[in-house]
Design brief:
With about 475 residues, the protein is mainly alpha-helical. It has 3 domains: about 180 residues, MFS general substrate transporter like domains (Growth Hormone, Chain: A, Up-down Bundle), CATH 1.20.1250.20; about 50 residues; about 200 residues, Growth Hormone, Chain: A, CATH 1.20.1250.20. About 80% of the residues lie in helices and about 0% in strands. Helix 1 runs antiparallel to helix 6, helix 6 packs across helix 18 and helix 9 runs antiparallel to helix 10. The longest helix has about 35 residues. The radius of gyration is 21 Å and the shape is globular.
């Protein structure tokens, strides 16, 4: 443990939390600005989807190779480099002359944010003692929920009052501030000896992630399921190659030799696969069957993340004192209950808002009990030399789970409704059936997560 004062520790916590906040904000603040961007650059609605897709893909592809880079140049330099990349690309986005140029800056932002995501957890795990790890990771995780909650609201306000370019102008100084704060407060650099860069492994990982995640994100398009299948096969080839490599990009053997790390990672994948798309499906239900406008639906949807913001740090602090498996498994069970309640939504209900808010309590508390304790378990189950790799795995399984969740719900909508653009009154019954099936499938995914949450193996004895 390096000699860092308590004040410096919490300033670094603030800096890394601001860095983590950038990912959900950059992903969600532009949602309500897309129509304006389309008008300015004369871009179709379908092509506007690349604003999110390109950012997510760039971020996911760089997470694992980025861990090698972080170990080589150090946590501090990597975090600062990430903030500089994000700040510069945000500023350049304001002056993008064409839509493809704007997309290029969006991709570069995804690369920069990947460095922030890798280093934030690694830094916190390094500088805080084990007995405070769950709490600080809870604070760090809470920032994701804060970003997802405030992102669309802030993006909409800024777009309406100052124009969509103001989003990038405001983000740049915030992320730059986090980098400067960390540079000033973190006096010690953490570097690790690295072997030769695994170029073949990096290529296999990049192509497999590109095809798998793009296939999942467009699962209802013709041929996308085959693209996702090809990506899955290629990822299996990547694993096979890494097991035989003398200088692997990803320590794949850890998944076979460290049961606690592996099963906690699988549980995270299944948790995000079970719950991420709930917001999407419920918002559609409220604005169609529920006959609410966007503002009314938004107020109801705000209830769940607010609970998570309050409860997540508390769950993280509790996990410092008890075995996380009790909290994480309990969280998964609460999630299952919430999903089963959602599967019971019908065409004619007397108090739809109240019913949904009850389900949100279960899902929100489930997410709070799961996220920080499980992440703390993953980070605590590996040696310090593997912190950056473990941090990248946390981010990869989160994004993969999110895409699986959306793929399940979009596939259900496609089968029963045909598409959300066809969601008129005559299709409400079919949409309710799609909602029911997707929530039952999600509950089944969460049931599998209960197994990995409970049977995760003993905690490592690390002094």
């Amino acid at each position: 443990m390096t000699e860092i004062t308590k004040k410096q520790q919490y300033l670094i916590l603030l800096a890394t939390s601001l860095g983590v906040l950038m990912n959900p904000l950059l992903a969600s603040m532009l949602i309500l600005a897309l129509p304006n961007i389309g008008v300015e650059y004369l871009v179709s609605a379908r092509d506007l989807g690349w604003m999110s897709t390109a950012y997510i893909l760039a971020n996911a592809i760089c997470l694992v190779p980025g861990a090698w880079f972080v170990d080589k140049i150090g946590y501090k330099k990597s975090f600062v480099a990430g903030t500089l990349i994000v700040a510069v690309t945000c500023l350049l986005s304001v002056f993008a002359p064409t839509y493809p140029v704007l997309l290029a800056f969006r991709i570069a932002s995804g690369v920069g944010v990947s460095l922030l995501m890798i280093t934030s957890l690694a830094i916190l795990t390094r500088i805080f003692p084990k007995e405070k790890r769950g709490f600080v990771i809870g604070i760090n995780t809470t920032m994701v929920y804060v970003g997802l909650t405030l992102g669309p609201f802030l993006g909409g306000i800024l777009t309406e009052t100052l124009g969509w370019k103001s989003i990038f102008l405001i983000m740049a100084p915030v992320v730059l501030f986090s980098g400067i704060m960390l540079a000033l407060c973190m006096k010690t650099e953490f570097t690790l000896p690295v072997k030769k860069f695994d170029g073949i492994g990096a290529l296999l990982y990049a192509v497999s992630m590109l095809t798998l995640m793009y296939g999942l994100s467009t699962i209802t398009d013709a041929g996308s399921i085959f693209l996702a299948g090809f990506g899955l096969i290629l990822f299996a080839v990547f694993v096979w190659y890494e097991l035989r490599s003398t200088h692997p990009l990803l320590h794949v053997r850890l998944f076979f030799e460290n049961k606690r790390f592996a099963r906690s990672s699988y549980a995270a994948l299944l948790n995000y696969a079970a719950v991420y798309a709930v917001t999407y499906m419920v918002s559609l239900y409220l604005q169609s069957v529920g006959q609410l406008n966007a503002a009314e639906a938004g107020m109801i949807m705000l209830f769940q993340p607010l609970i998570q913001v309050v409860a997540t740090p508390v769950a993280g602090k509790i996990s410092d004192k008890v075995d996380a498996k009790y909290l994480v498994t309990g969280g998964m069970i609460l999630t299952i209950v919430g999903l089963l309640f959602l599967s019971g939504l019908g065409l004619s209900m007397t108090n739809v808002a109240g019913y949904i808010m009850i389900t949100q309590v279960f899902i929100a508390l489930g997410a709070a009990l799961f996220s920080a304790p499980n992440t703390s378990t993953i980070m605590g189950s590996v040696a310090p030399a593997e912190y950056s790799m473990a941090s990248s795995v946390v981010s990869v399984v989160r994004q993969a789970g999110m895409l699986i969740s959306m793929a399940v719900c979009m596939a259900a909508v496609s089968v029963f409704v045909g598409g959300t653009d066809m969601l008129g009154p005559d299709m409400y019954a079919e949409f309710v059936e799609a909602l029911r099936v997707s929530m039952l499938i999600s509950a089944g995914i969460a049931v599998a997560g209960v197994f990995f949450s409970w049977f995760r193996g003993p905690a490592p004895d690390r002094k």
